[in-house]
Specification:
Helices cover about 65% and strands about 5% of the residues. By secondary structure, it is mainly α. The chain folds into 2 domains: about 70 residues, Glutaredoxin (3-Layer(aba) Sandwich); about 180 residues, Glutathione S-transferase Yfyf (Class Pi), Chain A, domain 2, CATH 1.20.1050. It has a 4-stranded mixed beta sheet, covered by helices on one side. β3 and β4 form a beta hairpin. The protein is globular, with a radius of gyration of 18 Å. The termini are far apart.
């Protein structure tokens, strides 16, 4: 197996955790996103979207991190990370879908407004234009440009803050209904793994307690998740000191405004 990955890529972290839980051996190949290596013609043959991660298993190419994680559970059923019953699988996939369709973009917008926006400001104008051009589809390009120009004032960042508020409201309810300790109940599953790196990013940005404070079940779930050996190995264990300090530094700069935007969202519900 070979995993094409990028440094501090949240989607890749999901796959790392799953591989570690399964005890599978694999090689890695790093794709430098800031150097646009994801658009190298040879890589685009593997992943036409030009994103990471990509898994190649005995010549078979699997893309999309959620699908890669399910593939790994299929080829290596023990220990199982997917419920046995159809209803349990559906519940697990609801969480995967929620992460893929809402939290992925929310994390990207908040991370960009905190860190990558500052890095892009220091880029030469030509390289910055190339980054905008390589954003992909028009919708993603619009989000990219708005977040660069407006930072936390971007409507996309406001929606990101709202999506995290919805996430933790739903997580608190799910843990209450399932009885925990994990999202689906007693069994740790891909529902937990798919979410963990995104929650970790908010913690590294010093923003997590904006949403999680006062939600004891979510706080307890996160404390358990961080103690999983696979998480410790695959998330903090793969970050550099510069990665961690940079996230904390830039996240702290937007923390007060993120908290204010959450209050704006909650006020709008009344």
């Amino acid at each position: 197996m070979k995993l094409y990955k990028a440094g501090n890529s949240i989607c890749t972290q999901k796959v790392f955790i799953t591989l570690d839980e399964k005890g599978l051996d694999y090689d890695t190949h790093n794709i430098n996103l800031f150097n646009n290596e994801q658009f190298d013609p040879e890589y685009l043959k593997l992943n036409p979207k030009g994103v990471v991660p990509t898994l190649v298993d005995d010549g078979r190419v699997i893309v999309e991190s959620t699908l890669i994680c399910e593939y790994l559970d299929d080829i290596c059923p023990e220990p199982s990370l997917v419920p046995d019953d159809a209803y349990g699988k559906a519940r697990m996939r609801v969480w995967s879908k929620y992460v893929d369709e809402g939290i992925f973009e929310a994390t990207r917008e908040i991370s960009f407004s905190a860190m990558f926006r500052e890095k892009m400001k220091s880029m030469p104008e030509e390289k910055r234009r190339q980054r905008f051009k390589s954003a992909g589809d028009a919708t993603r390009g619009a989000r990219f440009k708005s977040t660069f120009e407006e930072g936390t004032e971007s409507p996309y960042v406001f929606q990101a803050v709202a999506n995290f508020e919805k996430l933790f409201k739903n997580l608190e309810q799910a843990l209450d209904e399932s009885g925990g300790p994990w999202i689906l109940g007693e069994a740790y599953s891909l529902a937990d793994i798919n979410l963990m790196p995104y929650v970790a990013r908010m913690e590294y940005l010093t923003l997590l307690d904006v949403w999680i404070a006062g939600r004891p079940l979510s706080e307890a779930w996160w404390a358990r998740a961080k103690e999983r050996p696979s998480f410790r190995e695959c998330v903090p264990g793969r970050l550099t000191g510069d990665d961690i300090s940079s996230m904390a530094e830039y996240g702290a700069k937007i923390r007060d405004r993120v908290a204010e935007r959450r209050r704006e969202y909650l006020d709008g519900l009344q």
